[in-house]
Structure formats: C-alpha cells, structure tokens
C-alpha cells in the first residue's frame, strides 16, 4: 500500500500543487488521500478537485468552538486513513487534543527559519529585524505555535531593496522543493520524531537538514 498523506490548506495551495506535480512526475512516492480546509472557497480545494483528489471543507462558524470544529474536521481526516497529515498553508491554530492525538504524524511548512519569526507576517518580521537570511522550515506539529522540532530548512538571502512581496516570492520558490524532499524522507521511513528530537535513519539530528541549490536535503556541516 502506498504512503498516504492528508493535506490541510486554507489558501491558494501552491505547496499542494507542488506535491501534486511531483507525484504526477513520479518524483514523490506518496498518495494524497484527501485535502481538507476551513475555507470552502479555498483555491487549494479547486486544485485538488482538478487532480481527482477527495476534498472536504468545514466552516468554523458552524461550530460552537475550536475543539468542536477540530474534532469534526479530524473525523473527516481520519476517515481517509493517512499515514501523515501535512499542514500546507493551513491558517488556523489546531487544538491540543488533535495535535497530541497525531504527535509524530503531522508536519507543517512555515515561511521562516524557525525558531525565528513564528506566527504570521514572517517576511515583514524578517525585514523589520534586519535579518540577512530568511527562508522556510518543515517541522513536526506540537501544541506550541510553530514550535515543534524542525526537520529541514531552506535558506534565502535577504536582498537590498526587498519588500515583503519580493522576499516572500523567493521564499515560496524554495518552499516547494523543501516540502517535497521532506515528504520523500518521511514516506521512506527515514525521518521520525524520537524522544530526543528529529531522527534521520535512527540517529538524532543535531540541527535541521538544509536544502542545497540542487534541491537535495543535506545534514548541516
């Protein structure tokens, strides 16, 4: 049976499209079992439907609170029996019960070099801080916002004259291969969340893997 992933997305779904394209090209040995959203009008759902992927969306306003919404959404997710849940541009905080129930089985891609610049508006944060380097991270999801152990990162230089739009566009270009390569390692059973942090081939990583110019994930030197 192929490695099954469920994708959570709230927006345009460019990272989802990168996964769809990599799978179609035979470059990523996974199956997207479903795409789920908190926004029924999310472009990500349209991308999934065009690719023949199961979708489901629930509206938070139809539920009394976050716990009830998350329980209902994750009931849909559980029905497709994913091996891994991938948050790719999902913009809602997840409640602790669903996070703990899926510990080690849920990852997120975040547009910063964690632990720097958690939360929203990361490109603005990086520019305001005068950071010389920015980027993206794939990490395991824990109850702490953007605080789970980091699996891999892609670095992007901050250039003179950058604004949030130009910097964000360059980061996004690197997010796509970063997510694909991270999922390749996860699907192959090479990456897991151990007691001491992220493990690669059974050994705990001292630092996140880094995406090189050729799109390969390498251990930090």
TrEMBL record:
Its EC number is 2.1.2.2. Residues 4-182 form the Formyl transferase N-terminal domain. InterPro entries: Formyl_transf_N, Formyl_transf_N_sf, GART. Keywords: Purine biosynthesis, Transferase. GO terms for molecular function: phosphoribosylglycinamide formyltransferase activity. N(1)-(5-phospho-beta-D-ribosyl)glycinamide binds at residues 13-15. The active site is at residue 110. Gene3D superfamilies: Formyl transferase, N-terminal domain. (6R)-10-formyltetrahydrofolate binds at residues 66, 91-94, 108. It catalyses: N(1)-(5-phospho-beta-D-ribosyl)glycinamide + (6R)-10-formyltetrahydrofolate = N(2)-formyl-N(1)-(5-phospho-beta-D-ribosyl)glycinamide + (6S)-5,6,7,8-tetrahydrofolate + H(+). Catalyzes the transfer of a formyl group from 10-formyltetrahydrofolate to 5-phospho-ribosyl-glycinamide (GAR), producing 5-phospho-ribosyl-N-formylglycinamide (FGAR) and tetrahydrofolate. HAMAP family: PurN (MF_01930). Belongs to the GART family. This is Phosphoribosylglycinamide formyltransferase.
């Amino acid at each position: 049976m192929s490695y099954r992933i469920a994708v959570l997305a709230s927006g345009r779904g460019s990272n989802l499209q990168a996964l769809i394209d990599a799978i179609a090209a035979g470059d990523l040995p996974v199956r997207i079992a479903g795409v789920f959203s908190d926004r029924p009008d999310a472009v990500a759902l349209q991308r999934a439907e065009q690719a023949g992927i199961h979708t489901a969306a629930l509206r938070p306003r139809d539920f009394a609170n976050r716990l009830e919404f998350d329980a209902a959404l994750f009931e849909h997710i559980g029905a497709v029996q994913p091996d891994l849940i991938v948050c790719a541009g999902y913009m809602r905080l997840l409640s602790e019960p669903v996070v703990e129930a899926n510990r080690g089985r849920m990852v997120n891609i975040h547009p910063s070099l964690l632990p720097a610049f958690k939360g929203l508006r990361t490109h603005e944060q990086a520019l305001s801080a005068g950071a010389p380097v920015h980027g993206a991270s794939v990490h395991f999801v824990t109850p702490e916002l953007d605080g789970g152990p980091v699996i891999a990162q892609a670095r992007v230089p901050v250039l003179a004259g950058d604004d949030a739009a130009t910097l964000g566009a360059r980061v996004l270009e690197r997010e796509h291969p970063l997510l694909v390569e991270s999922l390749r390692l996860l699907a192959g059973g090479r990456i897991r969340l151990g007691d001491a942090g992220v493990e690669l081939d059974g050994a705990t990583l001292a630092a996140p893997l880094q995406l090189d110019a050729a799109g390969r994930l390498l251990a930090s030197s």
